[in-house]
Amino acid sequence: xxxxxxxxxxxxxxxxQEYGWFLMDEEENAVLLHRSEVREGFNPDEPVDVFLYQxxxxxxxxxxxxPLMTLGEYAWTEVxxxxxxxxGVFVSIGISKDALVSEDDLPYKYEVRPIEGDKLYCTLKLDxxxxxxxxxxxxxxxxxxxxxxxxxxxxxxxxxxxxxTGKAGSWIITDEQHRAFLHPTEREDEPRVxxxxxxxxxxxxxxxxxxxxxxxxxxxxQLEDSEKVYEYLMSxxxxxxxxxxxxxxxxxxxxxxxxxxxxxxxxxxxxxxxAYQEDGWTYEGTKxxxxx
Length: 292
Fold this sequence. Notes:
Blueprint (H helix, E strand, L loop, with lengths): L7 E10 L2 E5 L5 E5 L13 E7 L5 E4 L11 E8 L5 E5 L6 E4 L16 E8 L5 E5 L2 H7 L11 E10 L2 E6 L4 E4 L13 E9 L5 E4 L4 H18 L3 E2 L7 H8 L3 H13 L3 E4 L2 E4 L8
Parallel strand pairs: 3-5, 13-15
Antiparallel strand pairs: 1-2, 1-4, 2-3, 4-5, 6-7, 6-9, 7-8, 9-10, 11-12, 11-14, 12-13, 14-15, 16-18, 17-18
Helix pairs in contact: 2-4
Protein name: S1 motif domain-containing protein
Family: Belongs to the CvfB family.
Pfam families: CvfB_1st, CvfB_2nd, S1_2, WHD_CvfB
């Protein structure tokens, strides 16, 4: 059996060289333990547990550092940089050399690919040439670790990490390990894979998965929306050609709001005496009374 990257093995010292020690297994397959990879407790006269990986020259090497995971095991890894030719991202696996997540395992849309500091739930795999890569968890694996949410979780806040994204929306694993779905209508911007997000639970399904929203609760959103509308109104010297009679597409284009959200925001401003409507326009202040 040959030595394989991505595994932890127990080897014995064959001999010492200038750059470190050559270790060997029972079949006398040898691998170098560089001096920089030696840790406390190393004794050349005793067997040593090491993790095998490829060094920067592509050669099989050993380290006494314990990785976050081995072949077939999963762990959360942090993105530490992008491959120079945009062919993937590197994640830290707990040793001196980072592992590459191939672009084949990342979203097609570059804008939602993970960036430095994001986190991916990964395992280690070997390609057909025996090179070591990190691979994000499949949907099946996420289901294996997911825990059921209860109906009592409805409306609770959550924090989680996006693990998959697509046209239908985004999928998240929460800190409580609930599998969550985020519909595009429940967020302002599409989150990246690996990004940590916060929001609230808006539905709990019979299978224990949940639907979530990254938008504020209604009263919070109404306050934000009314401030946005009022700010635009004042930027036009207190009058604007928009009212609750305006077309939905006009409102969406100007304010980025649905017509319903715009009407609620406008209603709040009118109730507070900050705005009034007349002939399809909205004006700052209260409506002047007619002289008798």
